[in-house]
Structure formats: C-alpha cells, structure tokens
Amino acid sequence: MHVSDRHTSAYIAAILNALIIGCSFLFVKIALQSANPFDILAHRFTLSFAAASIPVLFGWIKLSISLKDVLSILPLALLYPALFFSFQAFGLVYSSSSEAGIIQAAIPIFTMVFAAYFLKERPSRAQKGFTCLSVAGVIVIFAMKGVQVESASLKGSVLILLSALSSAAYNTAARKMTQRFRLMELTYLMSAIGFLTFNGIALIQHGAAGTISQYFAPFRETDFIFSMIYLGILSSLVTSYLSNYALSQIEAFKMSAFNNLSTLVTMLAGVAVLHETLAFYHVIGALCIIIGVLGSNAAIRKRKGQR
C-alpha cells in the first residue's frame, strides 16, 4: 500500500476510534444503572477477551507470541487498559467528571512531550499551537459546565493525572510496539490484561463485601447486555485495534490530537439522544476542537510541502 494511502487509512481509523469512544459514554451511563464501575469494566473486558479469542480458537487468526514477546508487550498492556482505567475509576470517586475531563484533556500535550523525548518526534510550532487549541476546546466545554471546587480533592486530581499520563505513555510506547509486533497480537494481549485485571479487582471487592452472588446479576437487564456488547466489543476490542493501527502509521502526537474529537461526539450524542441542551460554550469548544485537529493536519501538509 502506498504511504499516502496508509496515512489516509490511519486517519480514518483515528476518526472511527474517536466516534466509538465518544458514543461509549451513553452506554456507560446506561450500564451504571445496573452495576458499579469496576463490575462494568470487568464485564466489558470479559466480552472483549471472549470476542478476541473466537478467531484464535477457530484458527482464523494465528498468534505467534513467545514468552519473551509477552514480557515485551506487557508494560504496554498494563498502561492501557489496566492503569488508565484503574486510575480513572478510583479518581472519579474523589473528583467530579468536569475536573477529570479538564485534566484528561491534556493527554495530547503529555503525548507530545513524551513523543518528543522518547521518539524524537518534532512537531512544528503550528502543530503545537493547534494541538493546544483543541485541548482548550475540551477545557472550555468541561469548565463551563461548572467545576465544583468545594468537592475538589488532591487525591482525585492526582489519580486522574496518573490516568492521563498512562494514556500518553501508552500512545508513545505503542508507536514503537506497533512496528515490532502484529496488531492482532497487541490487541489480543491488551484484552487479556484488561480481562485479568478488572475481573480480579471486581471479584476481590465482591468477596470482601460478601456479594459474589451479585456479580452476574446485571445481565438480567436487557439494556445492560446491549451496553456491554457495545462497550466490550466496539469500545474496547475494536478501538484497541484501531488505535494500534493508527499509531503504526502516524506519529503519536498526531493520533492523540484526534482523541479530543471524542468529547465533541459525546456532546452531540447527548444532544441528539439524551436531549441535553446545546449551549454557546459547546459551540465555541467544538469549533476549537475541530479547528485544532484540522489545523494541525494542515500544518503537517504545509511543512512537508516546504521540504
């Protein structure tokens, strides 16, 4: 495949990844009516791992992963999904969603810093500026919703910050790993780590509370089942593959910039499905996000054309 075609495919993958993640918040809201956050994570990654295992068990996909490969990939899989979701879930216990949204909006900036240091990726000043503009758009949306300062917790902020740093570190590390390993091998191991991590945490919690019998109770609800199918297969398995594919073709900071589009998708889904109000600050934030992402890519093309 021609380089330009691969880059086009990578950008399509990044956009699809943002669309799926953006819509996932609707299904998380539905699932939270029947289960707690760690049960949701456990069940979604159980479905993700089961779906990833089907083509392997039937021999449609051959995995050639040695113990040495597992040890090499393990830190990547621990960064995302294990540490990212764990820090996020515990952080939200002590922080509001607005606080978390503002802190996690900085993931593209953290990624840019990590990628510059570890991968020697050198974005232009225009790329840095447009990336910061897209981050500012996310911050505007969450800040204008209202951050409850009185409920702010240093512990919660630190945990959300660690979650954001885990995501940025994953974006950076995956850039190299996708050059060394097949995408399905990376995706499969990430699903396996998520399955083991979150089922372990959920079972320990239920064991301590004496509620093991309630572990599968949420599956009595049809809405919960559909939510888990979306979150487990699309929002966990498919997005892992899409992000790994995009990172195999384009720089880490470019891929990370697309992540802010998920906030825009979440906002539009809330207006269309949940009939939430579209305020002026939503429009301002959305314009900043779109201009930031498009402007960064326009700067990329201009820079290439000058060489």
UniProtKB/TrEMBL annotation:
Q: How does it sit in the membrane?
A: Multi-pass membrane protein
Q: Where are the transmembrane segments?
A: 12-32, 44-61, 73-94, 100-118, 186-204, 224-245, 257-274, 280-300
At the top level, the lineage of the source is: Bacteria
Write the record's keywords in alphabetical order, separated by commas: Cell membrane, Membrane, Transmembrane, Transmembrane helix
InterPro entries (alphabetical): AA-Vitamin_Transporters, EamA_dom, EmrE-like
> Main subcellular localization, coarse class?
membrane
Keyword Membrane (UniProt): yes
Give compartment(s).
Cell membrane
Q: Which PROSITE patterns match?
A: PROKAR_LIPOPROTEIN
Q: Give every EamA domain span.
A: 9-142, 155-296
The record's similarity note reads: Belongs to the EamA transporter family.
**Name of the protein described by the UniProt record:** Permease
Lineage of the species this protein comes from:
Bacteria, Bacillati, Bacillota, Bacilli, Bacillales
